[in-house]
Write a structure and sequence with these properties.
The complex is a heterodimer of chains A (about 110) and B (about 110). Chain A has strands spanning about 5, 10-15, 20-25, 30-40, 45-50, 55-60, 60-65, 70-75, 85-90, 100-105, 105-110. With about 110 residues, chain A is mostly beta strands. In chain A, the strands form 2 sheets. In chain A, strands 2, 4, 5, 9, 10 and 11 form a 6-stranded mixed β-sheet that branches. In chain A, strands 1-3-8-7-6 form a 5-stranded antiparallel β-sheet, with no helix packed on it. Chain B has about 110 residues and is mainly beta. Chain B has strands spanning about 5, 10-15, 20-25, 30-35, 45-50, 55, 65-70, 75-80, 90-95, 105, 110-114. In chain B, the strands form 2 sheets. In chain B, strands 2, 4, 5, 6, 9, 10 and 11 form a 7-stranded mixed β-sheet that branches. In chain B, strands 1-3-8-7 form a 4-stranded antiparallel β-sheet, with no helix packed on it. The N and C termini of chain B lie far apart (about 35 Å). The chains are: A mainly beta (about 110), B mainly beta (about 110). At the A-B interface, β4, β5, β9 and β10 of A face β4, β5, β9 and β10 of B.
Amino acid sequence: EDQVTQSPEALRLQEGESSSLNCSYTVSGLRGLFWYRQDPGKGPEFLFTLYSAGEEKEKERLKATLTKKESFLHITAPKPEDSATYLCAVQARGGTSYGKLTFGQGTILTVHP
Amino acid sequence: EAGVAQSPRYKIIEKRQSVAFWCNPISGHATLYWYQQILGQGPKLLIQFQNNGVVDDSQLPKDRFSAERLKGVDSTLKIQPAKLEDSAVYLCASSRDFSSYEQYFGPGTRLTVT
């Protein structure tokens, strides 16, 4: 069974204080690892897809990296508007549901001005 | 491009009542997903459609939940009868087809069962 564990559960940062969120996963065969951002009362918003170990992707203050067992979401010089829940999900190769996403529980990020 | 639409946004019902949620995916997207997100948890897949056919409903509690996508576009998810533990946000997502990587989510319907 595919599993995703995110840490920490919650993270409080001061504006400008860089940090990282962790996503550990087990999957029979990784097709893709996804990062989503979710604001209160809204659906998850797609950020990145990573396909293979060693891959990195960046978007503004966010950088996602991938190894064979985990992914990191690095936040550089965060701003209050980066406050949200960040969700990690994996998609397995093959199986009964080709597109199924298995999510972690999320990390709640709060950035104080 | 319009996003995934869902209605209603909020619903409060008593246990043992029935409820239905509606989803309109992004135009041209063949694959549609329903996820359940309980407070403090990540979304969990309930059912996946490819056009109007079911691809995966292994985690759908079929004794009380049902879903359909009759014309391969809009979809409806129904709960009958509802239980307290069904209180959650029900998210609809769509992708171009089952081999597409990215899924795009709607705003969700928040269900409270009292």
